[in-house]
Amino acid sequence: MYIGIKKISVVFFLGASTLYFAQSTSDTLSRETSLDEVTVIGTRNKKRTVTDTAVPVDMIDVKQISQSTGQVDVNQLLQFAAPSFNSNKQSGSDGADAVDPATLRGLGPDQTLLLLNGKRYHQSSLVNIFGTRGRGNTGSDLNTIPVAAIKRVEILRDGASAQYGSDAIAGVINVVLNDRNHGFEGSAFYGANLFKSPGDNDVVSDRKLDGNTFDFSGNLGTKIGTKGGFGNFTVEFVNKDYAIRNANPDKHDAPRQRFGDAKSNNIYFFGNIEVPLTDGLTFYSQPGFSYRNTKAYAWTRSADADGNIPEIYPDGFNPVQNTKISDFTFDNGLKFKIGTWDFDFSNAFGNNRFIYQIDNTINATLGVNSPTSFDAGGHSLSQNVTGISTSKAFDFLEGFNLALGTEFRYEKFNIIRGQESSYAMYDVNGNVVTASTNPDLLVINPLTGDVRPGGSQGFPGYSQEVGKSRNNFAAYVDTELDITKKWMVSAAGRFENYSDFGSTVNGKFATRYAITPQLAFRGSVSTGFRAPSLVQKYYSLQFTNFQGGELVTVQLASNDSELAQKAFIPKLKQETSLNGSAGFTFNTGKFTATVDGYYIKVKDRIVLTGTFDQSDDVIGQTLADLKVDQAQFFSNAVDTKSKGIDVILNYTTDLGPGKLSTTLAGNYNEMEITDVHTPAQLAGKEDVFLGARERAFILASAPKTKINLNLNYKIQKFNANLQLVRFDKVTLIGYNGPDDFQTYTPRVTTDFSVGYDFTKSLSWTIGGKNVFNRYSTLQYGAVSEGNTESGGIFDPVQMGFSGRQIFTRLSFKF
Questions:
Q1: How many CA atoms, within 13 angstroms, populate the side-chain half-sphere of residue 163?
Q2: pLDDT of 51 over the 60 cut
Q3: Could you check whether the bond before residue 813 is cis, i.e. omega within 30 degrees of 0?
Q4: Could you say which DSSP state residue 22 is in?
Q5: How far apart are CA 383 and CA 535, in angstroms?
Q6: Nearest to residue 52, comparing CAs of 395, 335, 398?
Q7: Of 591, 462, 573, 449, which Cα lies nearest the Cα of 519?
Q8: How many Cβ atoms from other residues are within 10 Å of residue 156's Cβ?
Q9: Which distant-in-sequence residues (6+ apart) come within 8 Å of 602 by Cβ?
């Protein structure tokens, strides 16, 4: 696991020296050479490599990193590899337990565009709501793509809406699939959380060893035809058990008795195919499918709770959200030439579908006759993008590249209704409760005298069918000009028209200048936008939340609903941004450094508002009639300003008979809310529309600083890797007002692994992540009052909540 990078190659991208690993000395040359491959993002010049782009691009060798760490999904792998990337594990956050929302530079999960082999990848149909970072945001799900299918990940850390369209405000992540045309590579992984270290007696676990994880993958490359065609196919299976970290040392006196990592079973199949049909005409295809079954525990219902029937659950119960996620992608295209112009015609289709089954639960209004398992329905999102692009290199000055293209995108969002008993409230006669139901017929809990709630406890089902669609047309021009051998400039412009809200035009300018052979300057300025997603416009759901020791029912109302209109919530519109960046790169051979500062101003960000309750003088009575305690809405509620800096220092040297590579990588990010757009009709309710609690969650999307230190030593067939990651302080606010601070102090995680190459075809790694068993700051008082968002003894912040993991991996090829 030697950290092999070509010494001149770190000059124009951040952090690659931390991210490139090779299995043996014989692999080093090939790994180094791969850094000179043409980059797919940040430029449409087919001769431009990462070493000479005008904007920072990270090139991450996923296979080599995965062999030295205990991470089996892409989100968590990048979380501990790239300082500007953040993805928090979730617990009890509905579908987010399976997705783990990811961000770049602390912006929203939906402000980073995901590409697959350079083509727009579809978003998830999930919207982050309860207990998650990026609440009110949608986004793409990197975990739908298996690690074993990936050759590398490219991260463009720069605003790129003018080049790639909506969602690219924070940057672009491009997943490049394996294209090896021969041989088979496989991997078998086992990991488990080893609980717990001496003196760490404040977190309770069911077992000393949990979170057992098995990951088996196989990747086959083969030639197709005699003209250089290939097929590369990946199958991967992941099985992960619960890792429960109960909310309190006395686990029976807690809002949640089953807090921690969910259980999951995942199956993946991905392909990457390219076949020359004739000279100058090549067909390509990327089919992919994943199925994930995640089981996560919801809030505990006590024996005397209004939502419990003691005859069925004498001791109360812990509902289980049994989520089934199927994801399908099918991209096809033709590459060809007309004269001296290169063309690419493509069609990319994707679909993401969530189905929720709620087990070990009850509809309390049905009494002893209630089922204990419900089909709660779900949601899906489909996307189809058809595009044609062309580019040509000219000899003007030192070189001029022109790229043009158009795209047509169709999107459709569906909410799938659950079975009636998953969402309905019934009266004493078994009839569905409506606004006209006699209150004397409501089902009462004789222990408390309160009305019993309807629907499946833990996750009430979707009560209505929704089917909404839209289309979008885009056209762009992207240019690059080498004025001299030292000075390059680029400019891009993009027009887009959406069928549901209108048109937008955005532009970008970037430049790079080599001051000396060792020192270069680069910078860019751009405008950007993000269209409101269909999910944000049309999603609605009732869910339960634990606030101040009480379970409350919250209605998340869709933007086009009557309730939103009564609350004077405006129709959603696009977010807009202004991005600027500037940086230097320095290289003396053994030592390299990159420094990139950035400024991002975003207007009209779409987030979730605060909660309006039954005491509200505008919609309070409506909420009471709906039998819900609170309501939240999607709104273009805030403007934010982010500024920060990325720094990478790398030193590589021979040490004794081996080679030592050291990398220090850090991100500093500071965000502020510059304006809150409270509707005029809600004047005086600013702290309700977006109170201190909701503002704190926006600002806590990423720690203020994140620092990675990586040491790697390679000697013959033996290698060792040590990585320390420091996550800065995070501050949240509880339910008791702006003075109810919940502070999570800085934490450092330590990962260590050793490996041995038995042969060129067989290698073995053993190691641990978070070997000192670090946890986030425990929030005793908050838990006793039910004020953490997760109901656990800490919130989903920083590095997760599973503690120490040990792992071993056997990799082979033939």
A1: 33
A2: no
A3: no
A4: B
A5: 13
A6: 398
A7: 591
A8: 29
A9: 107, 111, 169, 575, 576, 577, 639, 640, 641, 642
Rounded Cα gap, residues 19 and 59, in angstroms: 8
* Integer Cα distance of 561 and 434 in angstroms: 18
- pTM score of the predicted model: 0.90
Angle, vertex CA 501, rays to CA 163 and CA 332, nearest 5? 45
The span from the CA of 102 to the CA of 123, in Å, is: 12
| In contact, 421 and 370? CB cutoff 8 Å | yes
CA 157 to chain centre: 15
Q: Strand order in 150-156's β-sheet?
A: 57-60, 150-156, 171-177, 112-116, 119-120
DSSP-assigned letter for residue 38: B
In the block, tokens 């790994």 appear at 31
Which residues of 395-501 form beta strands (DSSP E)?
400-416, 466-482, 487-498
Pull the structure tokens for residue 652.
């590589």
At 204-255, the pLDDT tens digits run: 666 778 899 999 999 999 999 999 999 999 999 999 999 887 655 454 455 6
Q: What CA–CA distance (Å, rounded) separates 73 from 486? A: 40
- Name, in order, each residue with C-beta under 8 angstroms of 236's C-beta and a sequence gap of 6 or more: 146, 147, 148, 149, 215, 216, 217, 218, 266, 267, 268
pLDDT > 70: percent of the chain: 88
- Token readout for 119 is 């083509």
| CB-based contact 660:652 (threshold 8 Å) | yes
Cα separation, 767 vs 721, whole angstroms: 9
Cα–Cα distance between 225 and 297 in angstroms, integer?
51
Starting from the edge strand earliest in sequence, which strands make up the sheet with 243-246, in order?
204-205, 243-246, 260-261
Residue type, 506: N
What pLDDT does residue 131 have?
62
Distances in Å between the Cα of 755 and the Cα atoms of 194, 642, 734, 744, 758 are: 20, 41, 45, 34, 10
Is 99 in contact with 194 (CB distance < 8 Å)? no
**CA dist 315 → 20, 258, 453, 791 (Å):** 52, 14, 19, 19
Contact 247/260 with Cβ under 8 angstroms? Answer: no
Write down the residue that tokens 């220092």 correspond to.
Answer: 649
Residue written as token pair 């240019």: 479
Cα 555 to Cα 544: distance, rounded to the nearest angstrom: 9
CA-based nearest residue to 571, from 557, 583, 559, 581:
559
Q: Can you give the pLDDT at residue 77?
A: 87
At 332, list the tokens: 């096809």
